[in-house]
Amino acid sequence: MQKESEVIFSKFSKGLKSLVRRKQVDSVHVRREGHQLARKLSAFDLTAIGVGTTIGAGVYVLVGTVAREHTGPALTVSFLIAGLAATLSAFCYAELASRCPSAGSAYHYTYICIGESVAWLIGWSLILEYTIGGSAIARGISPNLALFFGGEDKLPAFLVRHTIPQLDIVVDPCAAVLVLTVTVLLCAGIKESSLAQTVVTTVNVCAMLFIIIAGGYLACQTGWVGYELHSGFFPFGVNGMLAGSAVVFFSFIGFDAVTGAAEETKRPLRDLPLGIGMTLSLCCILYMLVSVVIVGLVPYYSLNPDTPISSAFSANGMQWAAYIVTAGAVTALCASLMGSLLPQPRLLMAMARDGLLPSFFSDISTHTQVPVKSTVTAGILAAVLAFFMDVSQLSGMVSVGTLLAFTVVAISILILRYAPPNKVPLPSSLQEYIDSVRMQFDAENLGTERKPFDDADIVKQSSHQFEDGEASNQYPLIQKQNSEDKQNQRSRRRKIALWNIAFFCIGVLVLTSAASAEYLPRLKNLVDLKCRGYLPRTTLLVMHMLTSLSSESPYL
Predict the structure, then answer these.
(1) Per-position DSSP letters for 399-461, written without gaps between them
(2) For residue 142, is pLDDT > 80?
(3) Greater confidence, 400 or 201?
(4) Three-class DSSP labels, 85-148
(5) Cβ distance 208 to 170 under 8 Å?
(6) Which residues contact 517 (CB under 8 A, 6 or more apart)?
(7) Nearest to residue 91, comparing CAs of 478, 406, 366?
(8) DSSP secondary structure, 444-507, as one string
(9) Is 262 exposed, middle or buried (0-12, 13-18, 19+ CB in 10 A)?
(10) 161 with 152: CB under 8 angstroms?
């Protein structure tokens, strides 16, 4: 009976360990078995993918709603604050992408830094985000196309929405056709799809530049009447401006699509951070300039919440500008659709490589060097949802998945800095050299009491650099194994760092919940915030002390 209980406990402990096991970092120089993704993307291609995914049609509607309800003329400041907040998250993605340049984005980083169970949750959250987000974008294209052509009656019959009375659903053939078209384009190859993304994104950016230039000229002619108001620059106060920042923050979501193409980047260590940075910079500048012009053309309370940009031009005698604005909205939706469907097959491929999905999804085409099976599966699923379902009610789940992904990426940075994974794989050429040296040491020490040579003997890598994917002829120095006391000390610091990271996350959660508690009086809320803010500050102080006391760098 006791042996059976011990066996059950052993199996249970192994099951728990499997939930928190972490995979090793993929080196950019290691070549996997089988066919590989084509490394054809440059920093410019990544920027086009990021900008196209980030700038959706929402900005063409969002400026009117936020200005009327939250910010007034201070809309530009709200975009600036939201851009700075998005930049902090982009820094986390950029560092992880350069250190772990592999497909999977936030799922891949979570698997390395946190564990398998959380990575599995993040992976499915991202799949839900990409699928529902792509379907919602596709269903938003047909109304804009109808507006561009002058009404739904001007569209071909097979593209017009139809209602099925028996099922009480509205089918959208245009959305399904667009999703399938983008799927075929993605199956053609990464370079071809990135070229199409660049063309569509360029048209969208040109439409926004027209809004900025033409709107600025009209505003100069009319004297910027939108800023000459008695209510001032902050009619809703600072709280309204911050509330507007929270709303427009979601217009910066999409830069994480750049990390989904990590394995298809020519020089990932340089191009991935550069692509993320250029994407956010361009988007923030365009958003701020558009908001400056539109809020200055007409008073904020006169903006049409549905078509704010078109109505602002129409109020100044430029009704024909609505066609350019609609064209920009359509191309923005098409670019966002391509950006939503691009990372999903790579994510399915990464999960299949790790054994969390069937190996069917990890197959790579020998002709196009893209995961065709995963792309077709994801495209068909998104097309079916876009055709049959009104996914607007499920769009809120996309925001939840994005928030969850951003949170675990930030936590992964803390773990990578203060409690990094135990082993960091070396390039294959170095690993072969280490194996040969180990065999030599084992042969020399045979019959003695010395312990065999182990990978732990390598404590530092020489300062050689890798260029063009080839390892240098300089190899790491071989040193003796660290003493047990030093290893135990490092283990204790690691545990302290992990506990402090956990307490820091709890402190931030408690602090944000206290900040959003409307039922507390203002004075009591401020006192509560001050008291609860001590926990995250204390944990940060402890982690800083651990770093300063450590004799070696905490970084990988």
Answers:
(1) HHHHHHHHHHHHHHHHHHHHS--S--PPPHHHHHHHHHHHHHHHHHTTTSSSPPP-GGG----
(2) no
(3) 201
(4) HHHHHHHHHHHHHHHCCCCCCHHHHHHHHCCHHHHHHHHHHHHHHHHHHHHHHHHCHHHHHHHH
(5) no
(6) 525, 528
(7) 406
(8) HTTTSSSPPP-GGG-----S---BTTB--S--PPP-PPPPHHHHHHHHHHHHHHHHHHHHHHHH
(9) buried
(10) yes
Residue 151 pLDDT > 80, yes or no? Answer: no
Cβ atoms within 10 Å of 491's Cβ, excluding its own: 11
pTM over 0.85: no
> What type of residue sits at position 143?
P
Q: What is the dihedral of CA 83, 89, 92, 97, to 10 degrees?
A: -80
pLDDT digits (tens, 9 = 90+) for 481-516: 445 666 666 666 666 766 667 766 776 666 566 555
- Main-chain dihedrals φ then ψ at residue 518, nearest 5 degrees: -80, -15
Residue 260 buriedness (CB in 10 A; 0-12 / 13-18 / 19+): buried
The CA distance from 453 to 481, in Å, is 9
Rounded distance, CA 142 to CA 148, Å? 10
Residue 367 three-state SS = coil
pLDDT over 70 (residue 52): yes
Q: How far is CA 229 from each of CA 32, 87, 224, 225, 319, rounded to the nearest angstrom?
A: 63, 32, 10, 8, 25
d(CA 296, CA 456): 64
